[in-house]
Amino acid sequence: MNLKQKAAEKAVEAIQDGMKVGLGTGSTAFWAIQKIGERVAQGLHIQAVATSQASEDQARELGIPIIPFDQIGRLDVTIDGADEVNEQLVLVKGGGGALLREKIVESNSDRLIIIVDESKDVKVLGAFPLPVEVVPFASEWTLEALRGTGCKAEWRMKDGERFLTDNGNYIADCRYGTIENPQELEIRLNQIPGVVDNGLFINMADQVIIARANGQIDVRNK
């Protein structure tokens, strides 16, 4: 069992019968959805929403009941991965391209559990490029404004074309090297016209589960 799978299976222990559950996106959340599917097959009754089309498709294949957003109400818990997490539980997310939907779902969850392997546990954020979701209209102006915040910003590409989110927007990957003040940067980025949202998740995670190569699982609580 790989580290991501270990962290995911630990997190899924928190899901109880009757809960409303948010399903994250990405290579670590994949394993959580797999384990939830196993538990549903064994008789667990939950209702779920997904943060991306890929996660929704996976959930449906596993028999996890997906409920329309206008019918599910507030969620009990969401389980998701992260690209970086620091000791204050500030996250960088969006490597899977679903940062906006993740932020919407996780803002409407009573509890957010983040699952990572030890490579994502950092002292200072910024080694991983910070994803920023940008509307296509006049996007080059938005990209220049992002560069004005002190980063090297480039469009995320896929198959030779600009990567499109499930919302039909672009992702600019912004390389800062280090992010010393995430709170200040989040505000500054979201004030740029054309920016939909960014991959800094501040004061959102309630628990981070970190799987380490030595077999240890660390749990960091808010």
From TrEMBL:
Pathway participation: Carbohydrate degradation; pentose phosphate pathway; D-ribose 5-phosphate from D-ribulose 5-phosphate (non-oxidative stage): step 1/1
Gene3D superfamilies for the chain: 3.30.70.260, 3.40.50.1360
EC number: 5.3.1.6
InterPro entries xref list: NagB/RpiA_transferase-like (IPR037171), Ribose-5P_isomerase (IPR050262), Ribose5P_isomerase_typA_subgr (IPR020672), Ribose5P_isomerase_type_A (IPR004788)
Swiss-Prot/TrEMBL keywords: Isomerase
Domain of life: Bacteria
CDD domains registered for this protein in UniProt: RPI_A
Active-site residues, as the UniProt record annotates them: E102 (proton acceptor)
GO molecular function, one term: ribose-5-phosphate isomerase activity
Residue sites binding substrate per the record: T25, G26, S27, T28, D80, G81, A82, D83, K93, G94, G95, G96, K120
UniProt catalytic activity: aldehydo-D-ribose 5-phosphate = D-ribulose 5-phosphate
Function: Catalyzes the reversible conversion of ribose-5-phosphate to ribulose 5-phosphate.
Quaternary structure, from the entry: Homodimer.
Family under the similarity heading: Belongs to the ribose 5-phosphate isomerase family.
NCBIfam families cross-referenced by the UniProt entry: PRK00702.1, rpiA
Protein's recorded name: Ribose-5-phosphate isomerase A
